[in-house]
Amino acid sequence: MNAPIIELTDVKKSFGPVSVLKGVGLKVYPGKITALVGDNGAGKSTLIKGLAGVQPYDDGVVLFNGEQVHLHNPREASRLGIEVVYQDLALCDNLDIVQNMFLGREETATGIFDEGRMEREASETLRSLSVRTVKSVRQKVSSLSGGQRQTVAIARSVLKSARVVILDEPTAALGVAQTEQVLNLVKRLADSGVGVLMISHNLVDVFQVADYISVLYLGQMVASVEASRTTSDDVVGYITGSKTYNGEAA
Amino acid sequence: MTTDVASTSNGAPAQAPGVFTPEGAIGKLVRVQAFQILLVLVVIFLIFSALAPTIFPQWSNLRLIIQNMSILAILGIGMTFVIVTSGIDLSIGSVLVFSGVVSAMAMRAVGGDGLPTAGLGILVAVGCGLAWGILNGVLVAKAKVPPLIVTLGTLGGALGLSQVLTGGVDIRDVPSILSDNIGYGNVPGTTLPLISLIAFVFLVAFGIILHRTRFGLYTFAVGSNEEAVRRVGVKVDRHLILVYSISGGLAGVAGILSLSQYGTTAIAGQSQTNLNVIAAVVIGGTSLFGGVGTIFGTVVGLFIPAVLQNGFVIVGVQPFWQQVAVGFVLIIAVYIDQRRRLAAARGTGVKRRFSLGNLVTRRK
Fold first, then answer.
1. What are the φ/ψ torsions at residue B286 (nearest 5 degrees)?
2. Number of neighbours of residue A39 by Cβ within 10 angstroms
3. Contacts with A, B 205-234, CB within 8 Å
4. Measured between alpha carbons, how far is B208 from B10 in angstroms, rounded to an integer?
5. CB-closest option in A95, A108, A177 to B6
6. In whole angstroms, how far apart are CA A250 and each of A213, A229, A238, B336, B358?
7. Is any Cβ of chain A less than 8 angstroms from the Cβ of B144?
8. Distance CA B77, CA B200 (A)
9. pLDDT (tens digit, 9 = 90+) per residue, A80-107?
10. N or C: which end of chain A has fewer CB within 10 A?
């Protein structure tokens, strides 16, 4: 088995007196999809916000490619190649696709925007993800459909040779056909060698694409298993706390 | 259900694809509010020109209009930046007065009529404006007090302090170098008011900053989706503080210009300035909801009240009608903006439900 690209050990995070992450361990492998599941309030969002550098962890060790790193701000995470696609997509409606994809990391040539280069890279990225319906990369995001927005958000994450992409409920607001398409997109991401961490409430989706499943329960990682070695019923048990996982952490 | 989705997606109601063709470029231009309002301005201009052809369209009259607009234009720049971030700055009029007062006092204390005194006055005025702007920015960005309240507070604070400093009596000592050159002087060798050239330089410089630089892009982005900008690692708080500082600093510039033009601190004379500037910015197509706006639009938005005022006087209509007319133009401008936003929201809402299949993957 490959070495994990991300390895968290004993990560902790509290908000005032409330301890949200109570010593969590997690591994994400390059080229594999790790699903992070757990009930509302289990700490999934807090866990990924720490990885994104938005809300740094209070304590614990983060290994990236075997080396310890400190993720104090989003730029730090971005520099390592950790990208997050948030559930609410976090796109700016009044900006166009290129501006959104490059927001915070615009390409400049002698002080002014290198629009040509950014347009080209944005188009290439969309093409590499087999997206063909976007009429122009100069379209404002406000004119896009929900599915197109999800595409732009995912394309944004892989624009700058991401090593790890974290997807927060990528299929939550989508219909059946679109869910299928987004899941295919997620698989292609992993096939290209990117480590994918996907949060989902939908176990059907999880079992369809995930290689590993990690279950958070009240701030603790209660199970980390290979998807092929467990069942939906078991995972539901871990999520609700009615079953305990006794095996080795995968 | 699934078939519905599929069929809609195949016939994807192409999002105004014409926008990107040459003839679509004209269509796009027509839909830009700044351009629509420019057409309104042209119509107003033509009407007054027809009614008073010997007075209204003459350079001497137009010169008067742009001279009177220049100070408001400087203030309009800062206001455009602030409103694009979906904020508001009510304090500019008071900050203008405060900067003028402190600057006039400093110049009076130093004495003299020459360039060093004037230079000091300029620095003091801009410094005072910046200080109020930074205070506004910090309270908005860090303390998270709504900008309407913060700047309402500093509106009162700056005006009150000006009155405390002067005892409520206007200072009328302004170095003649300021009043002669900037106030009513022309660009040497022309009949172009120097104050208008100054305003024009500021407009161009800040127009470039807003529309061509990273700072400007982030200004639009913050107004569009602050959280998204924060997540990509842009220092949003610092950006907001800078934007309010620009507005305050430019109010300081306006303060010294006003001092030069009117030769007095005119403490009571700026109570409507903030509202007039906000009206102009909004008429010019800058959305109060943030994320949309142009410096060009603001200039056009400033011309409409100025031209109406001037034209009404010339054709013998009571100039009070100007306020009535501007009021209605303002409401219409915001109505158009609202309708466009609602249409956009409905559009995406419908598509979200029925044409998510626009996301085409390799499968297809």
1. -80, 130
2. 15
3. 212-214, 217, 220-221, 223-225, 227-234
4. 41
5. A177
6. 9, 10, 15, 58, 37
7. no
8. 11
9. 999 888 877 678 988 999 999 999 888 8
10. N
Taking an 8 Å cut-off on Cβ atoms, the answer to whether A92 and B232 are in contact is no
Torsion A39-A43-A47-A52 (CA) sign: positive
CB nearest to B291's CB, from A52, A93, A129: A93
Pairing outcome for strands A112-113 and A212-217:
unpaired
Question: A199: helix, coil or strand?
Answer: strand
Q: Which residue out of A115, A133, A160 would a mutagenesis test of the B interface target, given it has the greatest number of B Cβ atoms within 10 Å?
A: A133
Residue B69: both structure tokens together: 């607009």
Could you read off the pLDDT of B145-187 as tens digits, one per residue? 999 999 999 999 999 999 999 998 999 988 988 988 888 889 9
Specify the domain boundaries for CATH 3.40.50.300 within chain A.
1-81+162-250
CATH of domain A1-81+162-250: 3.40.50.300
pLDDT at residue B46 in the model? 95
List, for chain B, all residue ranges whose pLDDT scores fall below the cut of 50: 1-23, 348-364
Which of B356, B360, B362, B363 to probe by mutation at the A interface, max A CB count within 10 Å? Answer: B356
